[in-house]
Amino acid sequence: MSRNNYTFTSESVSEGHPDKVCDRISDAVLDAFLSEEPEARVAAETFATTNRVVIGGEVGLSDKDKLRDYMGRIDEIARACIKDIGYEQDKFHHETVEITNLLHEQSAHIAQGVDAADNKDEGAGDQGIMFGYATTESEALMPAPIQYSHAILRRLAEVRKNGTEPALGPDAKSQLSVIYENGKPVGVSSVVLSTQHLDEALTSDDIRAIVEPYIRETLPEGWLTAATEWHVNPTGKFVIGGPDGDAGLTGRKIIVDTYGGAAPHGGGAFSGKDPTKVDRSAAYAARYLAKNVVAAGMAERCTIQLSYAIGVSKPLSIYADTHGTGEVAPAAIEKAIDQVMDLTPRGIRSHLGLNKPIYQRTAAYGHFGRTPDEDGGFSWERTDLVEALKGAV
Predict the structure, then answer these.
(1) Which one of 1, 50, 149, 151 has the minimum C-beta count within 10 Å?
(2) What Å distances lie between residue 276 and 29, 267, 287, 346, 348, CA to CA?
(3) Percent of the chain as helix, strand, coil, to the nearest 5
């Protein structure tokens, strides 16, 4: 039996967090290659530490001359990301950081299992399991703790970048403990916020005075009370931030990227991977399907799992769980999903329009719960499959 009264906690990290700097660079590399060729192959990993960024992995374009040209632009791409994030520290500055490019051409052995040939449909880029989740507890059909943890940091990034709060630095983390009554979020028992600041004289109390108004305006009315515990920069000064303070690596924030621990995760990271990699594209498809199931009124909560094998086009399994909230049997939802969407790698990319340079924007503040963009970004957040699902059950 599921619990109705409890407290659940999720965290988010800002675009200036060391791991998110790396996610951003990896996705910027991906976008650069996709802007040249929609079928480009990219699996880019980034490592960052004091005064140094290292980028490695596999890339592929059909035109070898253009591949060499784009390989020469990696330094420029990385510096532009670091500049936009806002790093101008002595030991991590967009102009002076040392950048090492170790990218190489994609393995032909991987390509032979993935590429379509001899009347064989394109296969998945890897084996694995992917999960999608949706819930009615927020307007975005996302779990409230992670959705509002993201929202706090996005708001603080806005006021930092527009000059309203120049004392704030790029590196930050937020954490919310949300109180649930009768299965619905009703308040916050604790707020944890650690943010880099540029003035060494500022105390924890000074930082709280800066950030508290933005936190209050971001959270639903009545969620913060006299009983809410506040922990703002609890260790004191936080001046040295980003990769100079702690090394970063692509793909280390997969729970931040998805559902904040409120739903299962298949284990695969997203950033730096082109959409032939089902770690990314099928996880987006699973979220899209779960969100449309909930938007269609079939359940208040829905988890979708998909599974794949490398070189095999169709999913090996489709699983739905409505956690006891369903108006439609999970088996009927599974059957409907199989009818209304082609879940081969190419079918997912076509349905969601994933062969576009739309990934750099996903690198911070979550891949889910965002507003779909007119250019196709966050297409997996659309609810345009509702009627088709209703008609298939």
Answers:
(1) 1
(2) 16, 17, 17, 7, 9
(3) 35, 25, 40
117 contacts 70 by C-beta, under 8 angstroms: no
Of the listed 253, 291, 351, 367, which one is catalytic? 253
Instruction: Answer yes or no: 64 catalytic.
Output: no
The neighbouring-strand residues paired with 104 are: 58
DSSP conformation letters of 16-76: TSHHHHHHHHHHHHHHHHHHH-TT-EEEEEEEEETTEEEEEEEEE-S-HHHHHHHHTTHHH
Q: How many beta carbons lie within 10 A of that of residue 138, not counting itself?
A: 18
81: tokens are 């990301």
CA distance 298 to 311: 33
253 catalytic residue (yes or no)? yes
The residue-averaged pLDDT of 270-286 equals 96
- Return the amino acid letter for 226: A
- Whether 19 is catalytic: yes
Pairwise CA distance, residues 234 & 240, whole Å: 15
Active site residue 11: no
Distance between CA atoms of residues 134 and 301, nearest Å: 6
Question: What is the per-residue pLDDT for 123?
Answer: 84
Report residue 303 CA to chain centroid gap. Answer: 17
pTM of the model: 0.95
Which of the following is catalytic: 279, 300, 321, 381? 279
Annotated catalytic residue 279 = yes
Measured CA to CA, the distance from residue 206 to residue 215 in angstroms comes to: 15
- Residue 126 pLDDT class (50, 70, 90 cuts): confident
- Encode pLDDT of 206-221 as tens digits: 999 999 999 999 999 9
Please give the C-alpha separations between residue 141 and each of 144, 200, 287, 323, in angstroms, as whole numbers.
9, 40, 10, 15
Question: Among residues 36, 37, 39, 58, which one is catalytic?
Answer: 58
Task: Using DSSP, state whether 275 is helix, strand or coil.
Answer: coil
Q: What is the pLDDT of residue 125?
A: 77
Q: Which of 8, 11, 15, 20 is catalytic?
A: 20
* CA-wise closest residue to 100 among 29, 150, 42, 52: 52
Mean pLDDT of 158-169: 97
Task: Evaluate whether 321 touches 330 at the Cβ level (below 8 Å).
Answer: yes
Average pLDDT over residues 234-244: 94
Catalytic residue (one of 247, 309, 332, 392): 247
